[in-house]
Amino acid sequence: MKLEVLEKDCYYHIYNKGINGAPIFENDENKIFFLKQLSKYLLGKISIFGYCLMDNHFHLIIRLNEDEKIVKQAFSNFFNSYAKAFNKQTERTGSLFEKHFKRIRLKGDDYLKQLILYVHLNPKHHLDLKFHDYKYSSYQAFISNKETKIEKEEVLKLFGGIENFVFCHNQKNDFLTEKHTFE
User: Fold this and answer.
1) CB-based contacts of 16, cutoff 8 Å, min separation 6
2) Which part of the chain is the Transposase IS200-like domain (predicted)?
3) Which of 31, 36, 118, 175 falls between 20 and 30 A from 43, CA-CA?
4) CA dist., res. 119 & res. 19, Å (int)
């Protein structure tokens, strides 16, 4: 599979999973550490528009603020630092993630909005959890008054405000619930 070229000022869906579907997070501390390392290595080089950390995979919605070479190296350093710490903590060796992180360039605001919904509803889709209570997604950052590193204002503007942001998430959740009920 040919990997998408990363271009400055473009939006991307970045995702990966554990090798052979194995967990990449075993506890809350792993997820907290992952987010800290993400900030340490990439904040400023990218802007974050959404994320969700599941036990065996993650999703990031980003915009590049630097050139590809700088961002790819920062991602490499980030993933390596996390994998080394995880391997040490769990007394394992070898690769943690699938070979290369996947990336899809987003084309248009509608795609970006739909992806934000998809990423935030991942806990519902994979674990049948209430997405609005899930601690390791960026959804809470958008609806709270707390300071955040997420591009909150830009995303809420994209949705036409916080009320519509919440409404769209609830509509999509209801649709998934109905679809799941009839399967």
Assistant:
1) 57, 58, 79, 97, 98, 100, 101, 102
2) 7-122
3) 118
4) 21
Residue 160 structure tokens: 């036409």
Strand partners, 13: 61, 104
Q: Is residue 27 part of a domain?
A: yes
Band of residue 181 on the pLDDT scale cut at 50, 70, 90: very low
Q: Is residue 1 part of a domain?
A: no
83 with 99: CB under 8 angstroms?
no
Per the domain annotation, does 128 fall within a domain? yes
Query: What is the total count of domains within the chain?
Result: 1
Output the domain CATH number for residue 148: 3.30.70.1290
Which domain does 87 fall in, by range?
Answer: 11-182
| Global pTM exceeds 0.90 | yes
183 band by pLDDT with thresholds 50, 70 and 90: very low
pLDDT digits (tens, 9 = 90+) for 129-157: 788 889 999 999 999 999 999 999 999 99
For residue 143, the Cα-to-chain-centroid distance in whole angstroms is 17
Across the chain, what does the average pLDDT equal? 92
3-state class (DSSP) for residue 20:
helix
d(CA 167, CA 174): 10
Q: Which is it for the CA torsion 3, 110, 31, 151, positive or negative? A: positive
